Each structure stands twice: as structure tokens, then as C-alpha cells.
Amino acid sequence: MKNRFFASSLALAVLLPVATADAQNMLSTEQIVESLRGVERQATLHPDELRNLALDNIKRNPGENAPKGVPVVNLLENLRQFNVEINFDFDSDRIKPESFVAMGAIADALHTPYLLHQKFLIVGHTDARGSREYNLDLSQRRADAVREALVTTFRVPPESVQAVGVGEEDLRDPANPDAAVNRRVQLINTGF
């Protein structure tokens, strides 16, 4: 069996690059708000649809690494989103304590008047280590862990956030499928 994730991370994309572990303590609520606000209409994204696209891609294109050009990318690329590094224990969905500073900044942003009544989708991604089916499951568990922390620890309204994992089916750097930049969670504003 392939090696699974090393001290893996997920990242919550568009306006700012993925923050490094050191930089996550410098995140500001304003950066997150500015990256996520400005949605004028509701996106028609449903977590089950994204997960089914990932599962269909695994079935249609079996093998070690996911092919480029997966339909998931087309659904996500034009939406307001933000990336930040969230670290997890090895091969686990346990969020490391040092990531709670970043999680707090995210929660603060979601509590601002600009974002308070909008809906968000947490999309979990992995690198290509491990089987694609395993990665799909791990990415879901990690996206669920981020959602659970936002809802329980930071009191983000549960109806405002949903979580879905798409594994390695949407690599950020397909030329380097095992690169850390592929391990991320996108926080996407789907609107009202």
C-alpha cells in the first residue's frame, strides 16, 4: 500500500495564495472577508453533486492518479473562495492545535455582517498519496472536521456551512501530484 499523508494539511482560493503554517497566524479577518464577499447570486452547488462527480471520475478513469480536467474544477473555479492552510495529524482528520488561530480568523469573517447570512461550502482535497478511494474518504472526513470545528467551537450557524470531500480528483498542481499544495480545503461562498 502506498504511503499515506504526512503531517497533512488542507487549505480553505482565488485571491490569495495558500498561506504557509507560519503565515496562517498573520491572517486577518479582513483578508478573508474581502476574498469571500461580493456574491450577487446563489451558486447551484450541492455537496452530493460534487462527491458524485469525484466518484464517477474514479470509476471512469481507474488507476493511480486522477486525470486532469475533472468536471469538479469547472464548477468551482469562478466562485468566491479563500485558501488557508489547516494542519492535521498524519493520516487523520484531527485538526492540529496550531491551526485553530486560522480557524478563528475564518469564523470571525463568517460572523461579520458582510458574510453572516450567506452559505458556504467546505471542499476537501488531498494529494495523490494513497488510493483514490481512500483519499476521497479522508478528504470528506477532514472537510467534516473543519465544518464541525466552525460550528461547535466557533458557533458558526450550522445551516450556513456544508462539507464535501473530492479527494485527489482536483489537484491544484497536477504536475506534482504528491505536493503539499494539493492538500487543501476550499471555503467557497455559494451565496444566500
For the structure shown, list the relevant keywords:
single chain; 192 residues; alpha+beta; 60s Ribosomal Protein L30, Chain: A; 4-stranded mixed sheet; two-stranded antiparallel ribbon; 5 helices; disordered N terminus
Explain what the structure shows.
The protein is α+β, with helices and mostly antiparallel strands. The protein has helices at 29-36, 47-60, 71-76, 100-110, 132-153; strands at 9-11, 81-82, 85-87, 119-125, 161-165, 184-191. The strands form 2 sheets. It has a 4-stranded mixed β-sheet, with helices on both faces. Strands 1-3 form a two-stranded antiparallel ribbon.
The H-level CATH homologous superfamily, spelled out, is OmpA-like domain
Helix residue percentage: 25-40%
Q: Topology as H/E string?
A: EHHHEEHEHEE
The CATH class turns out to be Alpha Beta
Structural class from helices and strands?
alpha+beta
Helix and strand arrangement:
Layout: E1 9-11, H1 29-36, H2 47-60, H3 71-76, E2 81-82, E3 85-87, H4 100-110, E4 119-125, H5 132-153, E5 161-165, E6 184-191
Parallel strand pairs: 4-5
Antiparallel strand pairs: 1-3, 2-6, 4-6
Helix pairs in contact: 1-4
How would you briefly describe this protein structure?
The protein has five helices and six strands, in the order E-H-H-H-E-E-H-E-H-E-E. The protein is an alpha+beta fold and about 190 residues long. The chain has a single domain, classed as 60s Ribosomal Protein L30, Chain: A.
